[in-house]
Task: structure prediction
Amino acid sequence: MNPEQKNSPFSTALRRFWSSASARTGSIGILILLIPALLAPLLVNQRPLIMKKGGEYSLPFLRYIFAPESSEKLVEQTFNYFAMLTIVFFLSRLIRFHRIRRWIFALSAAALLLPFIFTQPKLERINYRELCKKGEIRAVFAPIPYGPFESAGSPFETPSRNHIFGCDDIGRDVASRLIYGARVSLAVGLFATLTALTIGTAAGLATGYFKGNFDLLMMRLVEILMCFPTFLLLLILMSMLSDRKFEQSIPLLIAVIGITGWIGPAQLVRGEVLKQSALPYVKSCIVSGLPAHRILFRHLLPNILPPVLISFTFGVAGAILSESGLSFLGFGVQMPTASWGNLLRQAFDNPLDHWHLTLFPGMALFIAVISFNFTGEGLRRALAPEKAE
Result:
């Protein structure tokens, strides 16, 4: 690394970030959730990873990576695609020539989409574990050899050797549903917050730069929306959509949480734009006759990104809590899709007897929220050290 790279703003911010104990703790917590979510088909699967039958080897699980057997197929495919893309990325790092490496990675990423598009789902009800016990096949299974939709134990079975986190109300393995529930929580948290930030950043940039009557009208709209508690607004919207027979799915939940969460980012961005607009570089851009879109996206936006990134991490934690709360009340992710909120809901009638349905999803929620909050605090210290003092 040359001296210029070593002292670049990015390197300085990265050193500040890793020097914070809270940032390191938060990053480790996010990895604890993200890695199992990405590798879910390899960790949780009722189908063998490798099977030998009649002298022939096969990979029964592979087809269901590209065409998962799930009501939330898009979320499953998204995580499976990024898991495989991560492997391709690390393999491409072995290539020494940067230009060739970029081209190979881009072509591989595009080619990797094809099996996800063209592989057709296949309904299969074969109990491979029984076949293995009978000696009809030889197989290597995932560490948790149960699917998230498979009834493999007794209802409300407490943790045991076969089911380390116990079973839910119809005998599905809780550990498998927790890992797949992490996909739901992370998908809702990340994409809902991204939606909210996109809307809020666009609104904040426009109101802060153009000011005048447009700013006046937008801020009055923001103040009206602020009168409604966010979670109550979410409940009202989800209830209205369910009354109109809209299918309650993860994309719908992401859209609703994102649309109701743009108010805070809009106010934050507007304030930053007003502050930046008073600086000489913006005034010189206006005097030079640069078009508004170029001033907004080439000059203002890069300079207000640090507080937006900090807001993103805190927003993910809030979105995860909102999804779990809605699912707990029956307005969010619907069965049979795995969700931390609907696992907690199953323990509602008797939380002491069904303590494993309270403890493990509750711990997962705690780790997720505190990890993103700690990471946000670390980003705040790294990107805005003068405000962290």
Notes: The first strand starts at residue 50 and ends at 53. The first helix runs from residue 3 to 6.
